[in-house]
Amino acid sequence: MKYLLSYAPEVRDALEQGRPVVALESTIISHGMPFPENLDMAREVEEIVRQEGAVPATVALIGGRCKVGLSDEELELLATSPQAVKVSLRDMPVVLARKALGATTVAATATIAAAAGIDVFVTGGIGGVHRGAPGQPGQVWDVSADLTVLGRTSVTVVCAGAKSVLDIGATLEVLETLGVTVLGYRTDRFPGFYTRDTGYGVDARVDGPEEAAAVIRARKLTQLPGGVLVVNPVPEADALDAAEVERHIAEALEAMAAEGVTGKAVTPYLLAKMKQVTEGRSLAANLALIKHNARVGAQIAAALKRG
Ligand code: PSU
Ligand code: MN
Predict the structure, then answer these.
(1) Rounded (5°) CA angle 212-216-86
(2) Has residue 144 got a pLDDT over 70?
(3) Looking at residue 186, what DSSP letter applies?
(4) Average pLDDT of the residues of the chain
(5) Mean per-residue pLDDT for 218-230?
(6) Is 163 one of the catalytic residues?
(7) Is residue 25 in contact with ligand 1, taking CB distance under 6 Å?
(8) Which of 80, 120, 211, 269 registers the highest number of CB atoms within 10 A of its CB?
(9) CA separation (Å) from 27 to 32, 223, 234, 243?
(10) Model ipTM over 0.90
(11) From the candidates 163, 264, 273, 275, which is the catalytic residue?
C-alpha cells in the first residue's frame, strides 16, 4: 500500500512534524449527497478540521494512486464527475489499474489512512449489516466491508453511528465479534445517523477528547488488531423523529425492492430515497452530523498528539 500513496504537501509536512491529521472519505461526496451540497460539505468539513488545529486529508483514488489530501479541483471533480466509482476494498485494484476516479468508502479510506500513518478518520455513518440477513425474510447477506476493516485496522473512526436503514442489533453484534471498541461520545446510546438513539446502548461512554484519546492510546498499547469506533450523535436540533424515520425507511426499502436495487448501489440508493421521502430533512441532518463529527474528530486527533 505504501508504494501507492501520494500525499498532499500539507499532509506530508503535518505527518512528518507529528501534527494532528484527520482523514476524510470521498464516497460521501460522490455517492452520498447531491451536487452542490456535496461540494460545499466537503469544503466546510475541511475548514472545520483546520479550525480545530488539524490538517484535513480527504482520500480518493486518482490516476492510479491513493491520494491522501486533495486539492480544491480534485474535490470538485469528485463532487461532479458521474464517472467516480464507489470504491470499497475489493474495487481498489481494479480502479487503480485502470487509473479511474475512485471515491473511497469507510473501508477503503480507513485502510489507506492507517497505511499513511493517520490515526483519526471522520465520516457520517459507517456501513453495517443490512436488514434481511439470513434467518429473516428476504435472506440477503449484505454486510459492509466497513466492519471487516474496523476489525483489523488500527484507526479511530468518528461517526454518527450506523444508518438506521441497517439492522443495528446485528451490526453491533458483528462489531463485538470483531473486537471493535465502541465509545459513545457524550452519550450512553448507540445513535442511528438521523436519530440520536437506536434503542441500543454502548459499552462505554467518553465525555471529551482527552477521555477518548486515553482509550485510543490504551488500545494501541494492547497491540490488538482493529480500531475504535467513536459514535457522536447528530445534534439535537437536526435529529429526525425515530418513528417517522422508521416509516420512511420502510417506504424506501419497499421502493428499493420494487426497483431491484442490490449490492453496492444499496446505500447510495437509500440515502437518495430518504432525502426524497423526508423532503430534504435527511440531507440537512446528514450535513449537520458530518460537520459535528469533523469538529469532534479533529479535537480527538489534537488530544492524541498532546498525550
Ligand atoms: N455515510 C454517509 N454517506 C455515505 C456513506 C456513509 O453519510 O455515502 C457511505 C460510506 O462511504 C460507507 C458506505 O462506507 O456508504 C457503505 O456502503 P456499503 O454499505 O455498500 O458498504
Ligand atoms: Mn453492501
Answers:
(1) 95
(2) yes
(3) S
(4) 95
(5) 97
(6) yes
(7) yes
(8) 120
(9) 6, 30, 20, 28
(10) yes
(11) 163
Give the CATH number of domain 2-306.
Answer: 3.40.1790.10
- Protein residue with its CA nearest to atom 20 in ligand 1: 264
Quote the percentage of the chain above a pLDDT of 70: 98
Would you say the CB of residue 267 lies under 6 angstroms from ligand 1? yes
Output the known binding site for Mn(2+): 142
DSSP code of residue 191: -
Question: Closest Cα to atom 6, ligand 1: which residue?
Answer: 125
Q: Please give the single-letter amino acid code of residue 191.
A: P
Measure the CA–CA gap between 257 and 138, rounded to whole angstroms.
Answer: 10
The structural domains of the chain, with segments of one domain joined by +, span 2-306
Q: Report whether residue 108 contacts ligand 1, using a CB cutoff of 6 Å.
A: no
61-70, 213-222, 264-273: which has the minimum mean pLDDT? 264-273
Nearest CA to ligand 1 atom 19: 127
Distance 144 CA to ligand 2 centre (A): 5
Selection from 98, 92, 94 nearest residue 112 by Cα: 92
| Dist CA 42 CA 57 (whole Å) | 11
What share of the chain has pLDDT > 90, as a percent? 88
Is 52 close to ligand 1, i.e. is its CB under 6 Å away? no
- Output the pTM of the full model: 0.96
> How distant is the alpha carbon of residue 124 from its chain centre?
5
Pull the grid cell for residue 40.
460545499
Which residue carries 501520494 as its cell? Answer: 6
Catalytic, 273? Answer no
Q: Does residue 25 register a pLDDT over 60?
A: yes
Contact 99, 66 (CB under 8 A): no
Using CA positions, which residue lies closest to atom 2 of ligand 1?
124
Please compute Rg for the chain using Cα positions.
18
Closest CA to 5 of 79, 109, 103, 89: 109
Instruction: Give pLDDT tens digits for 118-127.
Output: 999 999 999 9
Q: Can you tell me which atom of ligand 1 is nearest the CA of 31? A: 8
Reduced to 3 states, what is the DSSP secondary structure of residue 58? Answer: strand
